[in-house]
Amino acid sequence: MSEILPIVIAGLALDAYAIGRALLRHHGVSTTLFWILAIVFVPFVGALFYLTAASPYLPRRKATRRRKAIRGAGLGPQGGEPPPDPTGLFALCARLTELTPTTGNHLKFLGEGQQAFAALEAGLAAAQASIWAEYYIIKNDETGGRFLDLLIARARAGVQVYLLFDAVGSLGLDGRRLKALRAAGGHAEAFLPVNPLRRRWSVHLRNHRKVVVIDGQLALTGGMNVGDEYSGRGRRHGGPHFRDAFVQVEGPAVYDLAQVFAEDWAYATDQVLPLPEQAEPLPGGSTLAVVASGPDQRQNAHALAWFTAISTARQRIWLTSPYFVPDQPTSRALIAAALRGVDVRVLLPSMPHMDVKLVGWASRGYFAPLLAAGVRVFEYGPSMLHAKTFVGDDALGFVGSANVDLRSMGLNFEVSTVVTDAAFVHTLAERFLVDQGVSTELTLAAVRAVSVPRRLLYGAARLWSPLL
Fold it and tell me: Which end of the chain has fewer CB within 10 Å, C or N?
């Protein structure tokens, strides 16, 4: 007994320390209770899991120093007229991200995988000076191979190539091609490797961003990873297909996306990249704010941007999100919007195509109160829906990497483009209607008729919302 006592005391001390950390950090009440219960009911193991998997933010002091170093290396924004901002959304985004919204941007919506990867590959092949690319997932398949081969070819041609990939999302990345990229003079780094022996590591904090900046003049960003299921090759080979969205950007906002990449690169490598010169506003261009969020923010930029956009909408809110596990403020904002007469629609994947079943089950635990308030919910039928888009009224649109879930609102590094442009938003709205046309609308009666075992499954899945 005396031999076990020190182990028990150490375990209790670790549990107490973990509970104290949970109470002091800004998780939110439900998430804090989740972790405290996990620690209490699974002693020692729950504490270890919390300490390695639940860091809600990175040290602010380090993040601030890194951001100042990056922005000090660039030439700074060119200025120009501030964009119209009747709802205060752009002011909010600027305050949270320190990225100034810009006018005079030319945008191209890339709603099909083949179209998006054709634009990506054409841009990479034409690069003359630099390629900065970061992705959550780069698959070891035909599409991933083509992508890396293009980077290798441009590096051999003297282009400065910097590739940042998430260590967990891109776990199966082709090591042979990475070695060839580095041998050709390119640079490739993993973001937050899962290695306790390293100074910076994490299990749970992931870089979910998808950003490519070419020659400092052209950028592509959105929800698509690099893989056959995204490019359309998966469908041709009889494999899975993901319905997704990307956007091509030219103009001053490319500078902001370059800043996002440079900050991530600095965090992963401690290397400060000189930023490109910001482009002049293009005639007839759109107003665009780059919204970058992550665990280095005490107030998550995406969570507050969504809340503001939903709360200020007057005619419509058409939201597409593959993983829908909203926090309480977002749920209430959607319900309040529907109750005041806004046309609120949520488009999600159907369960047969859902790639993460646990998230799909948890999502369905949120449907009843939304439907009861008048929110319309649709399940996309043809394939896995992976796009993350938002249409607000006639002229506000989001395209990005962030889902409406707790992971994107606190644990993942995410980036989106927020646009005010009637023509671009019309394109997003048309895309939404096309997808709605091949979807099944859920009714409150059907949701309430779900069997008790199924409802218990959905409720149990919701308990895991803080981790999904």
Answer: N
Please tell me the predicted confidence (pLDDT) of residue 234.
83
Pick the catalytic residue: 204, 210, 302, 353?
A: 210
**Model confidence pLDDT, tens digit, residues 219-263:** 999 999 999 999 999 887 778 899 999 999 999 999 999 999 999
Tell which residue, 72, 436, 446, has the closest CA to residue 259: 72
Of 393, 405, 421, 435, the catalytic one is 393
Identify the CATH homologous superfamily for domain 301-467: Endonuclease Chain A (3.30.870.10)
From 106, 204, 388, 405, the catalytic residue: 388
pLDDT digits over 317-334, tens only? 999 999 999 999 999 999
Residue extents of the structural domains in the chain: 5-53, 60-86+104-284, 301-467
Of 1.20.1600.10, 1.10.1240.10, 3.30.870.10, 3.40.710.10, the CATH number of 60-86+104-284 is: 3.30.870.10
Asked whether residue 27 carries a pLDDT value surpassing 80, the answer given is no
Q: Which of 139, 386, 421, 435 is catalytic?
A: 386
Look at the alpha carbons of 307, 308, 313, 316 in this order and tell me if their dihedral is positive or negative.
negative
237 assigned to active site: no
Residue 105's nearest CA partner among 206, 221, 254, 236 is 254
User: Chain centroid to CA 95: how far?
Assistant: 19
Which residue from 312, 401, 390 is spatially nearest to 85, judged by alpha carbons? 312
The strand ranges marked E within 340-404 are 343-349, 376-380, 384-385, 389-392, 396-400
Active site (annotated) includes residue 386: yes
CA 142, CA 295: separation in Å to the nearest integer? 33
What pTM, to 2 d.p., does this model score?
A: 0.87
Q: Hey, is 215 helix, strand or coil?
A: coil
Options 85, 215, 343, 355, the catalytic residue: 215
Record the tokens describing residue 142, joined without a space. Answer: 């035909």
Same CATH fold assignment for domains 60-86+104-284 and 301-467: yes
Q: Which letter does DSSP use for residue 405 in this model?
A: B
Active-site residue (options: 27, 204, 208, 302): 208
Of all residues in the chain, the percent with pLDDT exceeding 70 is: 82
Is 208 catalytic? The answer is: yes
- Residue of 254, 241, 251 whose CA lies nearest to 112: 241
Is 388 in the active site?
yes
- The token pair that represents 245 in the structure block: 């969205």
